[in-house]
Amino acid sequence: MTIENNETPIPRHHRGEETNPKGKYFAIRNWLNFIFIIGAIAGMAVYFFVGHTMGSVIIICAMVFKVAECCLRLMR
């Protein structure tokens, strides 16, 4: 039993990956992630060393940036 070589070319799907693989919101998403990480670290420090309420508020505010980043990711 022999296997024939299939020389049919695989079609390229034109969704934009070839021209811009990281997406048009890549830089904005990176900045939003950076702000989220800094806010989360600061919130954890405040939570453990200053007060639970203020630390929780800072972490929740940092989560707003993460939600915005996730929305940009879903929009692409």
Topology:
Layout: H1 26-49, H2 52-75
Helix pairs in contact: 1-2
Care to count the β-strands? Answer: 0
* Mean pLDDT across all amino acids: 85
Oligomer class: single chain
The helix fraction, in percent, is 55-70%
- Alpha-beta classification: mainly alpha
- Uncertain segments: none
State the end-to-end distance.
47 Å
Order of helices and strands: HH
Classify the beta-strand content into a percent band: under 5%
Short description:
The chain has 76 residues and is mainly α.
List keywords for this structure.
mainly alpha
Protein model, in words:
With 76 residues, the protein is mainly α. The protein is built from 2 helices and no strands. Helix 1 (26-49) runs antiparallel to helix 2. The mean pLDDT is 85.
